[in-house]
Amino acid sequence: MSAPVYRWRVTLEEALAANRELWTRKNAEYTDSRAHDAWLEGDVTWGQWHVPETQVRVLPAQLDGLDVVELGCGTAYVSAWLARRGARPVGVDPTPAQLETARRCQRELSIEFPLVEAPAEEVPLPAASFDLAVSEYGASIWAEPRLWLAEAARLLRPGGRLVFLRNTTLSILCSTDDGRMLECLARPQFGSYRYDWRAYGDGVEFHPPHGELIRMLRANGFQVLDLVELEPPADAVEHPYYNDIPLRWARRWPAEEIWVAQKDS
Ligand SMILES: C[S@@+](CC[C@H](N)C(=O)[O-])C[C@H]1O[C@@H](n2cnc3c(N)ncnc32)[C@H](O)[C@@H]1O
């Protein structure tokens, strides 16, 4: 047994190192310059086409007083939005540059909450200390699902809610390795758990298909409450930076999806 475990550990460390490097670069290219404005946005929205929370209603109706952990918070604008609504967020992310931007925004906008440097696979926070765990393109695609879902389950109180946004399986299957979106299948679904895109200047991503994800959620004591496939709003425009999926494609097929699960009481 020891050899496979050893190889897997090394692979996980490599994935984390590659993704930290990637998000340090993306912070310098885009996320740092965007963060202040993102923190200031009035509405809670989801994904690259800003689908309003009022439309999808995936968060608890009452956020005031909830303990929230954001897993893979990046520049932490989602945590900032929830803090302004009375929640008590803690942002967790393994990339120092992303957290440094979040700290700058905290100073500039006087919205304070704890920020913890850690991967979602191993979070140095006590068990059963949160009512809500959330991830918008954070742990949901950059962390090893078997590990981060177990961590989310550990961190949540009984009855707590897990809400995460990721790319749809369909969008992954229609994308080519060099980043084009086809209007037909470009790759097989079997073997789509993990993608190593380092050769293309990207990172290591995790995209388990629906069946696998449902089984992992249930194995960690979650009930799936909803799966919302997002349709861009009528006034959506192409994203200036995250433009791998053209708006035209996303208007015909779901490109992003939000999972809502509840930890057993
Ligand atoms: C697209 S950002 C998502 C966060 C936020 N919604 C944003 O757009 O700023 C992706 C984040 O995932 C983080 N990340 C990478 N590997 C991770 C891991 N193993 N666990 C948690 N987060 C990770 C990166 O550091 C990066 O800040």
User: What's the oligomerization state?
Assistant: single chain
Overall form: globular
Number of strands: 11
Please list the strands of the largest sheet in the order they lie side by side.
5-4-3-6-7-11-10
Largest sheet at a glance? 7 strands, mixed
Work out the helix count: 9
Supply the helix-strand structural class. Answer: alpha/beta
Residue share in β-strands: 15-25%
Question: What name goes with the CATH superfamily?
Answer: Vaccinia Virus protein VP39
Give a description of the structure:
- There is one protein chain.
- The protein is α/β, with parallel strands linked by helices.
- The chain has one domain: Vaccinia Virus protein VP39 (Rossmann fold).
- The chain is 37% helix and 23% strand.
- The chain has helices at residues 2-40, 53-56, 77-84, 96-109, 139-142, 145-155, 169-173, 210-219, 247-250; strands at 45-46, 51-52, 67-71, 88-93, 115-117, 130-136, 156-167, 194-196, 204-206, 222-230, 256-263.
- The radius of gyration is 18 Å and the shape is globular.
- The protein starts with a helix and ends with a strand.
- Mean pLDDT is 94; it is low at 1-10.
- The structure holds S-adenosylmethionine.
- The site of S-adenosylmethionine (SAM) has 23 residues, from α1 and α5.
